[in-house]
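Standup notes
- HV: blocked on the assembly model, inputs below
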Amino acid sequence: MEELRGIVYVSSATVDFSMEELQELADKAAAANKKLGVTGYLYFEDKSFFQYIEGPKDVVQSLMNHISKDTRHKVVNVITSDSLPDRYFPSWNMRHLTKPALVKVKMENVIIEYIDSLSKMGLQKIEGSKINIWNMINKLSKMQLQLSGIYQ
Ligand SMILES: Cc1cc2nc3c(=O)[nH]c(=O)nc-3n(C[C@H](O)[C@H](O)[C@H](O)COP(=O)(O)O)c2cc1C
């Protein structure tokens, strides 16, 4: 079986995004990711993006490199899984999560703050704390049924 990898990152938008532009970005990403076999989601708030992508190891890594070169944002922190036994979001090509959905699940803000505070402490600490971040992603994945319901 193909080895899977998951990557989460936080980035800062370098340009202003309207809701329409954001939706267009997410739609294009969803279509491209579907072809690549990449799943995950994208969240945007207060000029920060939070994206989680998962799929075949090499595909996800090259997609991340590609996304990092996009001048519409600047990647602040990237955290890569060592190994991923299963996909957390098998049915989400690139779901665009908006605030109303996440008002129910406040996990994202928790993770953003957590990663931010870790980065201020230095890299070594991030390595040791990876497990906590993956636990949070794991918890969030368990809520995907609840989140999916909002969009049905
Ligand atoms: C925050 C953010 C997230 C993105 N996520 C994806 C993604 O998941 N998949 C994807 O194909 N492109 C994504 N893109 C768009 C790519 O960076 C790039 O613009 C797109 O793939 C078109 O690339 P090209 O102009 O080289 O064809 C994202 C861009 C931004 C700013």
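- HV (later): unblocked. Strands lie at 4-13, 39-45, 48-56, 73-80, 95-97. Residues 49 and 74 are 9 Å apart (CA to CA).
- Next: hand off to the docking folks.
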